[in-house]
């Protein structure tokens, strides 16, 4: 085993998914598991699908329990990571699944999250140009948000190739695990089954500036995103429909060629064959993004659709993919390429 | 009983919903029920939820079986309505739930449906300006498509008040009953449960020109719609997220005021209080549309979201609402205002 | 309007269903709506599907707010009804949707619920022999539990006709609304979607003695029930599979004839035609029970399956059906016979 | 790679699950993929979740295409396996996921399946006493049915220890993938979502004699099973509630001890800790069975509940587990122990 990992926040959904993947990882061994309110309980009470860990007891999330590991994955509520990370040595690889260190612009942080900006860590999306090198050399990783992962992977080829105008409209559907394991009435099964609902409408969702940050970097100019999230009756999965005005003269062939080029060497990005459109069912439990793109000739818009599993590629899988790079391991190691269907 | 109604295509989902509503209609009596392949079978084999009609046998869809009724509701495959309607007398109110007579522009018909244009009937959306008078005086009604119903109701106040630019982007999620009872692999329960998928991407969905027709009429200038439909794991319901650039200077207050004005006297349109966003669960089985609107100040876009039940307000309820007008009955008669939840 | 009704516990699922049905009831007017923690909030925040009541504010559940109504429906947590009922006059019809007054045997109450037995009220299942007369003459009604409703309706004809031995095995699947609107982790959408789970296994579910009480009364001798409930990924509905050894010599014909006889004059009981089996989809939102019965010739067991909507016939619809009798109204008044499907 | 495998029936659900598991199997290489109606199409059109095989073309299911492999997995309609198997050499390991060779008793075959009995192959349930030795020495394996797998694993400890009477009542809920990818109206998403339904009631389901065969062998005397299957709104999973009268004098402690003993060395059987009950969510995508048992003291019945994934442990995983034994490989090789949740 090359590395020993602790998982803080092990009783939540992101924590559970990290453990599911780490159990199959050939070079990372599972060390301490910690929780907040659930400290002292068995993991099997929270994640009964993880047979080999069922009898492990959860410790408290303290610098002491997390110390002495090569990697520490943080799956904590927003705002809690900085204090923990400070106490871990600079040699420890710290991978934060929360939002605290994702944004480079303090003003954007304050506008969308409020309170002081904790700082900026290298952004854990290896598919962004030049990002693999950054991740290979860091001990701190900010794992992208689930929606920004889907939206960035859907649109970066169009912006990298200069085929889309920087006025993006995104509507995305997410499974309920994206909201975490919080006990809120609108997340009860009786409420979500059989219903799609909108929330955080009007450009107020906190993932919006992160999408703009990513796409602006690729485009080399400011990109504005109008983002509307919706909640769909499924546990996992994001389907992001991303549109932008096509640059005059763009053809469907040029658009497809740009995506083929951009995805050619990417292990986890999959451009579907013409005529096949993404479904979250293609990526359930997998670290893959399934993407398709079309040119709406009448409305002159680029329409790119991405499907990911919000807990895998959108959180825990993405975290391990970046951690693999930082640990000097093959990027794909231990990450499922195939989903579970039907 | 004021009127006797036949339902052609009674074994499908639209037919079943028509019957569910007509069973509670105080002034319409149910007459002949007909089908195509299912002629000769009991209705209870197809719609076991309709207790009083369980033992009714389905006749064949012919002019003879449909003759002698005051109203004939057609829930037939696209292309089949014209031949049937021609044989029904001019005195008979014919209400077509199919697409054949919705579009005014033959070129749009040919571009999206192919084949010759059957003609244009009065459009059964009473909420459009001036449309109630048209519907009170007709014996032929083209029931709107389910998606155009949701999109038109979401956006007409913004266009009527001149607050939105005519460059619309719509992404909508629909329950699977919108695809009818057709035996296609992608509609199997095993495929749709737990998954959201995109289809007809790139501006090719047939409901697109119908949306443009409605919004252009309201706006008084050509409106272009980029429309992407998605399939969600629920039986019923449409959630349409509709966005358009805000006209410069528009405020959130002006936007809300326009919607309050437009919805003030509408029996089936419901503007949610500020802060509450539509869910299809609000309209399950009801003839209501639940709408909310916001101004995305950063992206300067109007975001209007509408939830409807695709089979009720989106098809059968809308059909009966218009038929009520044509029959000289109160518009709301026999139509459920409240949904079934949770 | 013949009667004015208050609903205590209006923000929960049973309360919401009572209101949905009362809104369509021609002889009952909706009066005070009260809640516990949710007092002071708008009903629309909890039941946005009930359009006409959206702006009604919830009062506190006190004898004062509930006084002055002809009928008071109690949809309160177990144990809370007695104190409220005591303070309402003997002239007021009190209909308790909770368990407090269902059991006749104090020992059974203590064994399954613990604590002192509050008493016994007339049992609100009009389909039981002789029960309509009892209900017509009472001002206090104990509404049956949802599972006992399904199981009793499935099996009473077999026991009334002496065709089944008193050793019953029941396994039932319930939708999640049966657990109410309580914020428990296992009721989150992420947990319940895509999964069926068992709970309260081993004969410990509190509805067990109620099933035995009903079936023993019909059979005229003690009936034992082994009951296992399961939770299914749907909001509403109970499917109860009920089996008992067949009395020697019983034939399939005799069994069916007994059910036909028992159901002949029952407005809400529906024996499906041979070959069709119950689905909860047949009864969604309806006050109907769909029942089928078979004789397993090899295992010599009677297998009766009942589908109901746990919130309608299983709670609120059953409550109103009994209240209609007590108010001297037609039993079926205001109650939906047909479900909403698909 | 130790072995090369062909999969016949690769476009169906069982075929897809075989491929999902074989893609991760370190000692089995995927060879020919064949289909019936879907011959000539790409695998990616049917199983888009299997990224590396998306471009593989499906051949026809003929002895020629299947020849030359070490293992041939048959996932064919019932009745089709015998003809194919005959043409494959005795050296080829043939693993039949269909029912043709499961039953030892020709009379049971004829009573439940009709037509002539094709024969009997070694039964692929390694957990049955003595069965591992049989499977290590065979070139023909009959994979158990999904329901019999769940029921046998739930009850064999009770019968092996002589704690249960041979009069079993089983009610099981299955996800829709158990019915395969057949285009039948009752399997459409619109029909199955939000509904639980019964089918094949009255002791007529074809898996019944297989359950009796297994439990009788363990008990050493004839066991009768009354089996009622139900269809639940989920893609995968079986939850089987299995009850039998307790032998007089049996205690809860003795019962639990028998299960602990029986499961002690089983890699894929998991007895849950006291108080935790099986959910299909615990086994989604895993080759595990989660089991719990209780004694209903009042009704004097053993209640054992098992959850499995019908496509994994119930079909493809079970098939590979048995094939591992026949190929001389470690039994657990390539099989997922952990499920995907939530």
From TrEMBL, chains A, B, C, D:
**Its GO CC terms?**
cytoplasm
> What does the record give as its pathway?
Amino-acid biosynthesis; L-arginine biosynthesis; N(2)-acetyl-L-ornithine from L-glutamate: step 3/4
What keyword terms does UniProt attach to this protein?
Answer: Amino-acid biosynthesis, Arginine biosynthesis, Cytoplasm, NADP, Oxidoreductase
Task: Give an example GO molecular function.
Answer: N-acetyl-gamma-glutamyl-phosphate reductase activity
Highest taxon of the lineage: Bacteria
Localization terms from the record: Cytoplasm
Asked whether the keyword Oxidoreductase is assigned, the reply is yes
Q: Which InterPro entries match?
A: AGPR, AGPR_AS, AGPR_dimerisation_dom, AGPR_type-1, NAD(P)-bd_dom_sf, Semialdehyde_DH_NAD-bd
GO BP annotations, alphabetical order: L-arginine biosynthetic process
Query: Start and end of every Semialdehyde dehydrogenase NAD-binding domain?
Result: 4-136
- Please write the reaction equations for the catalytic activity of this protein: N-acetyl-L-glutamate 5-semialdehyde + phosphate + NADP(+) = N-acetyl-L-glutamyl 5-phosphate + NADPH + H(+)
Which Enzyme Commission number(s) are on file for it? 1.2.1.38
CDD domains linked: AGPR_1_actinobacAGPR_like, AGPR_1_C
Active-site positions, per UniProt? 146
- Where does the sequence pass through the membrane? none
Q: Which Pfam families match?
A: Semialdhyde_dh (PF01118), Semialdhyde_dhC_1 (PF22698)
UniProt family annotation: Belongs to the NAGSA dehydrogenase family. Type 1 subfamily.
Q: Briefly state the protein's biological role.
A: Catalyzes the NADPH-dependent reduction of N-acetyl-5-glutamyl phosphate to yield N-acetyl-L-glutamate 5-semialdehyde.
UniProt-listed HAMAP family: ArgC_type1 (MF_00150)
- What PANTHER family would the database entry show? N-ACETYL-GAMMA-GLUTAMYL-PHOSPHATE REDUCTASE, CHLOROPLASTIC-RELATED (PTHR32338:SF10), N-ACETYL-GAMMA-GLUTAMYL-PHOSPHATE REDUCTASE, CHLOROPLASTIC-RELATED-RELATED (PTHR32338)
Query: Per its record, how is this protein called by name?
Result: N-acetyl-gamma-glutamyl-phosphate reductase
């Amino acid at each position: 085993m090359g590395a020993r990992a602790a998982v803080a926040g092990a009783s939540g959904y992101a924590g559970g998914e990290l453990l599911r993947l780490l159990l199959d990882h050939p070079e990372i061994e599972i060390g301490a598991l910690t929780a907040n309110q659930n400290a002292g309980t068995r993991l099997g009470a929270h994640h009964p699908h993880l047979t080999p860990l069922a009898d492990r007891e959860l410790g408290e999330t303290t610098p002491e329990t997390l110390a002495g590991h090569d990697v520490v994955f943080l799956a904590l509520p927003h705002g809690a990571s900085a204090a923990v990370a400070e106490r871990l040595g600079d040699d420890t690889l710290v991978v934060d699944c929360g939002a605290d260190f994702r944004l480079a612009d303090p003003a954007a942080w304050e506008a969308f999250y409020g309170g002081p900006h904790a700082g900026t860590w290298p952004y854990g999306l290896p598919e962004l140009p030049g990002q693999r090198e950054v991740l290979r050399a860091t001990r701190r990783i900010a794992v992208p948000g689930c929606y920004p992962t889907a939206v960035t992977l859907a649109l970066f080829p169009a912006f990298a190739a200069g085929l889309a105008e920087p006025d993006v409209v995104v509507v995305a559907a997410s499974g309920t695990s994206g909201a975490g394991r919080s006990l809120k009435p609108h997340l009860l099964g009786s409420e979500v089954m059989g219903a799609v609902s909108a929330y955080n409408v009007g450009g107020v969702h906190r993932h919006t500036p992160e999408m703009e940050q990513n796409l602006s970097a690729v485009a080399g100019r400011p990109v504005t995103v109008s983002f509307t999230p919706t909640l769909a009756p499924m546990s996992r999965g994001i389907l992001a429909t991303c549109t932008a005005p096509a640059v005059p003269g763009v053809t469907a062939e040029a658009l497809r060629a740009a995506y083929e080029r951009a995805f050619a060497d990417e292990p986890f990005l999959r451009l579907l064959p013409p005529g096949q459109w993404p479904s979250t069912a293609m990526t359930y439990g997998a670290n893959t993004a399934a993407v398709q793109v079309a040119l709406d000739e009448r409305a002159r818009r680029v329409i790119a659709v991405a499907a990911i599993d919000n807990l895998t590629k959108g959180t825990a899988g993405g975290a391990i993919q970046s951690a693999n790079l930082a640990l000097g391991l093959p990027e794909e190691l231990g990450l499922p390429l195939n989903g579970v269907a039907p």
